[in-house]
Write a structure and sequence with these properties.
One of its GO terms (cellular component) is exocyst. This is Tumor necrosis factor alpha-induced protein 2-like. It comes from Seriola lalandi dorsalis. The protein has 506 residues and is mainly α. It has 19 helices and 5 strands. It has a 3-stranded antiparallel sheet. A two-stranded antiparallel sheet has the order 1-2. The protein is elongated, with a radius of gyration of 35 Å.
């Protein structure tokens, strides 16, 4: 029996010099002699035998530990297993070195098959009884070690990417922008490499693409959180938000080779909500001040022109100024920027920026702070402004796709001035945000759950009553407006000749 085991061990490939082993593999020389090619072929064959080596080592282990007494072969077996593990980790560590090389992919595939074999053997030994002999090195925990190695690899690659100054992104104006761009590119390129080639080297049940996606997301998120906490200028703030809200979720996670394969819902946002809120508030405040300054300057120039005797153009007995068109263009431009950088603020045709931060607080639970009631009162005031439009303004609204901005209420063109449609969209947005806030709340005590359930029932009833009454009033109001419009349309016929009057009479 001992001679057979010795012969079995002698037939195994020698894995005692991993440095030379991997050094030979990385040599790329297209002018090999025939002898060199044969040597490379032998080395490649030995690399591809990792899976076979693992299988034979497991067989040796099984034979060795069925003996009644310890053997000197245990030390040698342990050493051979450590050599095998070293080769496996070197194969994993070279994942991104030459990912398009078929030889490298074969080595990685064989290494992962070895990991799976060793995991099965770990479980086999864990199921043995306490009276059985047990290898001191078990469990090897190859899969756990593999995942820790991937984490170290990801951290190392992103650290190097952040320090890289060789890429051609000189057009970015600040160190923060360049670093974020480097990090984002590295995340994108490595995830695409995994999706296109590396994942085929792993068993499907490992879902290696999502393992890598989670590791890159965590590290990228950690670095961006550090940057977000460092006190950013407006320019850097907007660039960081652009990556968090647009580039990462759309250009990377929704890339044609990644879309639908990465569990984006499990990843979440790159920044925690409190960091995101702070940056978005900084950006939006800047944009608001910027628009106010532009509009104030435009109005001041218009007033100066009038004061200097340059009267506005007279059209149909009305003074006309192109300032309104300029205002609409400014509003449209800024609206587009905000949608791109802060989509969470303006994520629907009509968006109500609602803050439900006081939900699940003690003052909400005991009913002393009517969160939803205050919200609906604010909405009522904003929506009331939309009903108090003069007939001429309503006529213009039907003809021109104009932006409507009332505090936190933003209406994107083109849109009809249907108050009922408006209420429907606002209703949906209010409910959606309420439910999302509830879903994000951690489990409370039994007493708090009971109080919260009662508050939610009251809030739901209040929201439902508010919008149902709003739709009823809107219908009545619109009927009144249509009747007023018809009466107004009759008046111009008296001064516009017989054509208009005749057409009305018909």
């Amino acid at each position: 029996g001992g001679d057979e085991r010795g012969e079995e061990r002698r037939r195994l490939p020698k894995l005692k010099n991993p440095t030379k082993f991997w050094k030979n593999r990385r040599k790329q020389n297209h002018n090999h002699t025939e002898a060199d090619s044969e040597v490379d072929g032998v080395e490649e064959q030995r690399e591809e035998l990792l899976e076979e080596v693992s299988r034979k080592l497991i067989l040796r282990e099984e034979q060795l530990f069925t003996q009644d007494c310890p053997s000197e072969d245990e030390d040698q077996l342990h050493k051979d297993l450590e050599d095998l593990k070293l080769h496996i980790w070197m194969a994993v560590d070279n994942t991104f070195t030459s990912p398009s090389s078929s030889g490298q992919l074969d080595v990685l595939r064989s290494a992962m098959a070895s990991v799976q074999q060793q995991e099965v053997q770990d479980r086999r030994w864990m199921e043995t009884g306490p009276e059985d002999r047990f290898p001191a090195w078990r469990p090897l925990r190859c899969l756990s070690t593999h995942n820790a190695l991937l984490q170290n690899m990801v951290e190392s690659r992103l650290t190097k990417a952040a320090e890289d100054e060789s890429s051609g992104i000189d057009g970015l104006s600040s160190p923060l922008k360049r670093e974020v761009c480097h990090l984002g590119r590295r995340v994108r390129d490595d995830l695409l490499t995994v999706a296109r080639t590396v994942k085929d080297c792993y068993p499907a049940n490992m879902d290696i693409l999502n393992i890598y996606a989670a590791l890159y997301h965590q590290r990228f998120s950690a670095r961006l959180t550090e940057l977000a906490s460092s006190g950013l200028g407006v320019d850097d703030c907007s660039y960081l938000l652009f990556w968090v809200n647009h580039c990462y979720p759309h250009d990377i996670l929704e890339h044609e080779d990644l879309d639908g394969k990465i569990k984006t819902a499990c990843l979440g946002s790159l920044l925690l909500q409190n960091h995101l809120n702070r940056l978005e508030n900084q950006y939006l405040t800047h944009k608001e001040d910027q628009v106010k300054l532009w509009l104030s300057t435009a109005l001041k120039k218009e007033e100066e022109s009038w004061l200097n005797g340059n009267m506005p153009e007279l059209i149909d007995s009305y003074y006309f100024s192109p300032l309104a068109v300029d205002v609409i263009q400014v509003r449209q431009s800024q609206h587009s920027d905000v949608i791109c950088i802060c989509p969470g603020v303006l994520q629907s045709p009509v968006c109500v920026q609602v803050c439900y931060r006081d939900l699940w607080t003690s003052v909400w639970l005991d009913g002393s702070l009517p969160v939803v009631s205050c919200l609906l009162d604010s909405l009522s005031r904003h929506l009331r402004d939309l009903t108090d439009l003069k007939p001429a303004c309503r006529q213009v609204r039907r003809c021109l796709p104009v932006y409507l901005s009332v505090s936190h209420l933003s209406l994107s063109p083109p849109v009809s001035l249907s108050l009922q449609s408006l209420l429907s969209v606002v209703h949906r947005d209010v409910v959606l945000r309420y439910v999302k806030r509830m879903m994000k709340t951690r489990m409370k005590s039994r007493e708090q759950q009971g109080g919260g359930a009662q508050r939610m029932k009251e809030d739901a009833q209040m929201i439902n009553d508010f919008f149902r009454e709003g739709v009823r009033c809107a219908h009545t109001h619109m009927c009144t407006l249509r009747q007023a419009d018809r009466q107004t349309e009759l008046l111009p016929g008296q001064t516009c000749g017989g054509v208009a009057k005749t057409s009305v009479m018909k």
